[in-house]
Amino acid sequence: MGHFGDFGLFCHRESNGLSGVTVAKTLSIVSWLASIIVSVYCGSRGSPHDTEQSQNPWALNYAHSSSFTMNSTLGRHDANETPRSSLLNWQVLFIVQLFSRDSDRVQQAVHVCIYFIANNVLHAIFLLLFVHSFFWLSEAVLVLNFINLSVLHFRHKALPLQIQLSAVSFPLSWTFFALYWNGFMMVPNQSLVAARVVGCVFIWALLGYGILSLGAFKDPAMSLCLSFISIAVGVGQIERLASTPELVAPFVIGMVLGFATLLQLHMCWLRSTFGRKSAKSENLAEEKSVSA
After folding, report:
1. Could you tell me the pLDDT band of residue 48, with boundaries at 50, 70 and 90?
2. How far is CA 149 from CA 116, 143, 205, 218, 265, in A?
3. The whole model's pTM is what?
4. Radius of gyration of the chain from its Cα atoms, rounded to whole angstroms
């Protein structure tokens, strides 16, 4: 029981003992593997092209087409993958940080592992509900996971890049999109003009969230991921022969977010380069003054 008491206090400690770190490593790996197993299992259920009876996530993606329908090729690596499973591959970066030789890096990973574990557990539950078309329940799980990851995003703003990408930016960007993707599947008739208009409006939330991530959180990884998701949605709209507004909006969002992300990365590189040059100039000036 003492081990689990240590685990429950990860977020409130400056450092954790060996037993706490061991528990964090074990539960993080178990939750990650469980999430992958559920993803592969659900991704292999039926044909992704059988939109009539299949419980495959991609078949549901096309069967309940909306303004958020994605292209399956861009959203996966092979026919047995779910829309989010490629992001699970990135999460191995977080696992690696738990075994780093840098003790500070390990402690930083341990401090956020409770959110990482909760994300994997909630993802597995969401997917099991989703493939059985329990969209209302799966939406509730997505809301819980979005809150979980948002708290992580607000509380831990200075994480190393490997932890930020794998445990925060990529999962949070996908979960934000999935709230709309799954939510619009609950709408019974997407062919209605009202449903299409609402979809055309809500798709711009991806742009707003991406710009917020860049401006307020300086998180280019999230905006870049949302850019890729937007392009995948745009191609999906071509496949479903969507209306012009539904077709154009995702591509515009994807290009704007992509350009804004590259611009911020370029500005960061310029500031870093200028800072190094300034520091070098100051050092040279100090050396000259000392020698004089």
Report:
1. low
2. 8, 10, 18, 16, 24
3. 0.85
4. 22
